[in-house]
Amino acid sequence: MSNTVITPPGRISMPRWRELWEAREVFYRFGQRDVVLRYRQTAVGVAWVLIQPLVSAGIFSMIFGNVAQLPSDGVPYFLFAYVGMLAWNLFSGVVSRASSSLVSNQALVAKVFFPRMLVPLSTSLSVLVDFVVAFGLYVVLVLVYGAAPGWQIALVIPMTVLILTLGLGIGLAASAIMVKYRDVAYVLPWLLQIGLYATPVAYSLSAVPPDLEWLFMLNPLTWVLESFRYSLLGTSAPPTWQVVASIAASILVFLGGVLVFQKNERTFADLI
Amino acid sequence: MGNAITVSNLSKTYRISHSGSRPTRATEAIVDRLRHPLRRDPFEVFDALSDINFEVPWGEAVGIVGRNGAGKSTLLKILTRITAPTTGRIELGGRIGSLLEVGTGFHPELTGRENIYLNGALLGMSRNEIRRSFDEIVEFSGVERFLDTPVKRYSSGMYVRLAFSVAAHLESEILAIDEVLAVGDAQFKRKSLAKMRDVATDGRTVLYVSHQMATVTTLCTSAMFLSGGRLVYFGTVDGALQRYRDSYEEFAQAQSVAERRPGTGELRATAVRVSENTFTSTEDKIIEIDVGTNPAMVGEYFIACQIHDVNGVLITKCDSRLVEAWFDPSTEQQIRLTVTGLWLRPGRYGVAVYVCKQGILDAWEGAATFEVLPELPYPETMNDEAVAGALVLSDFSYEGSDA
Description:
The complex is a heterodimer.
Chain A: E1 4-6, H1 17-22, H2 24-41, H3 45-67, H4 77-104, H5 106-111, H6 118-145, H7 156-180, H8 184-198, H9 213-217, H10 220-233, H11 240-265, H12 268-271
Helix pairs in contact in A: 2-6, 3-4, 3-6, 4-6, 4-7, 4-8, 4-10, 7-10, 7-11, 10-11
Chain B: E1 5-17, H1 26-35, E2 43-56, E3 61-65, H2 72-79, E4 87-92, E5 96-99, H3 112-122, H4 127-141, H5 156-168, E6 174-178, H6 186-201, E7 205-209, H7 213-219, E8 222-227, E9 230-235, H8 237-246, H9 248-255, E10 269-274, E11 278-279, E12 285-291, E13 302-309, E14 314-319, E15 333-339, E16 343-344, E17 347-357, E18 359-372, E19 392-393
Parallel strand pairs in B: 3-7, 3-8, 5-6, 6-7, 11-18
Antiparallel strand pairs in B: 1-2, 1-4, 8-9, 10-12, 12-15, 13-14, 13-17, 16-19, 17-18
C-alpha cells in the first residue's frame, strides 16, 4: 500500500516521476480523446491535416521559389517547403495545443486530482498522429519527385523526438502561465507566426545574406530545421556543434518548462 | 497498520486582493509593475481552514458537516490534492479517490464506453482495474444499450448514473465523497447508498461531506463538525449533529449582514419576517420578505423560499415562478408568502430566502426561524412515538368496512 504525504508547496521541485508513470493511462486516454475528437468531428478529418501543409508549401514555393527566385539547395522547391512545414507544424502544433490545454480542461483541473503535467504532455499524441499522416504524404512526394534521401532518413525519429521535446518545454511553461494570464493565448500565435518567418522554414539558410547569417544561427529552431532537412532531403550535413547544441537546447528548454510548470502546478485549482 | 489519514496543523489561507482586481493579463501585470515598481498589492488574508488536526483509523466512514463556508469542501479538496495546503502535513495510508463532482471528466462527444475508460483513468484507476470492473460498472449504471452512443445523446439521468457508477467502482483505499449521493431517482439513490456502505465495511475509509443529515446518519460511523475553518468537534455522529444544530443561531447572525452573503448582490433582501414566532402544525405560515431596489436592473426577479428542519433537511420549496409571481426591482417590494396545506411536525424550522433572476442575486440562509408547537393536530393525544421518524404530518383518515 502506498503512502502519500501532502505538504505545502516548496519553491522548486521536480515532478514525482513515479506518480506520472502510474498515471500514464491518463496520458494515453487524453491523447486518444484528442485524436478521436479531431477525426470524428471534422467532416474532412484526415484531409485537413494534409491540405494545410500542402497549401502552405504551395504558396511558399510560389512566392519564394518562383517570385523571389530563392535557391533551395538543389531540391524541388515544393518538396523543400513541404518538409520545412512538416517540421514547423510539429513544433508549432505541440506548442499551441499544449499551451492551451490546461485552460481548455478547466473543469477537470479544478475538480479532479491527477498529475496535471499529463494534460499538456498528452497533446503531443494528437500532434504526432497528424505528423505521421503528413509524413505519409512526404513519402509519396519523394517518390513522385524521385528525390529519395539516403540512410539518414532513419534520423527522422530522433529529430521528431527533439522537436517534440523543444515544443513541449515551451508548451508546458506557456500552459502554466496561461492559467494566470489569459493573454498568453493571444501572444503565442503571434510569436509563432513571427517564428515561422524568422526560421528558415520556407526558404533555405543559403539564401540568407552572409552578414545576417549569425542572427539566424542564434535561433535553435534553425539548427533543428537544418538537421531535419538533412535527414529528409539529403541536403548538406549540419556542422557537429549544431547537432550537439540542438540536443542540449531541447533538453534545457524542456527542463525549464517542467520547472516553470511545477512551480505553479499546485495553485492551478485556486486560480483557473 | 497505522491510520488511514493523519492531519496535523493543516491550514489554508487565500489572499483576497483589494486593489480592485488582480491583473489577469500578463501585459497588465507588467505595466502595473513598471508603474509602481515597489508597491505591494494590498490584500486581506482569508483563513479557509486553520490549524486542523485529526486522525482517521481504517474502516471508518467519517461525515463532515458544517454550515456553508465552514471549510468542508476546502478540506476535501486538500485531502484529495486538488489544491495545496498553506501549512501543515497530511499523511495518507493509501490511494485516495474522489467523487467530488460527478461527470466532470466526461466528454460529450465520446461514447459511453470511451468515457468509462477516460473517467476511470482520471480517477486514478489503471487500465486493468477498469477492464476488470467494466461489466460491473455498465451493469450498475444500466446503460448497456447505449454504450456506443456519444454521451451528449444521453438523458441527464443516464449521464449521471454512468458517471457515478465509474466513480463508485474505484478501488482506492480512501474515498472522498462530496454530496453526490443525491443523484438519480430514488431507486438508484438507494443502490448508491448501499454501495457506499459496502465500501466502508470493506475496511476502507470513507469521507463524506453533506448537507443531508439523514444520509450522514445512515452512512457514517463518526463525524466531524467544522465551523469557520476550525475543527470544532470530532466524535460520534450524534455529537456532531448536535453541534450542527446548536450552530444555527450563530450562523443566522453572520448571514444577517448582507455583504457577507453569497449571491451577486445586484439586489438584496433587506428583511425576512415570520408572521408569528410560533405556529400550530396546521396553521398557514406567513413569511414576509422585504427586497431592496436596483433601478439599473432590467427585468423582473423571482423569489425561492425554502423551509428546513433543525437538521438542515429541506422540507419544502416555494418558488414564485411556479405560481407566476415575478417582482419589479425598480421599487422596494414587500412580498408576502403564504404557505398553506403543509402540516409540519412540532419543532424548530429555518427559512432560507433566495432572490434570483438568471443566477442567484442574494442567498440568505437562516433568514428567519419559527417554532411549531408540540400539539399534534389530531383528535387523539398520543405520545411522540406515533409520529416518530416522520418528516411531515398529513391529514388522513381511516375507514373500515366488513369484508
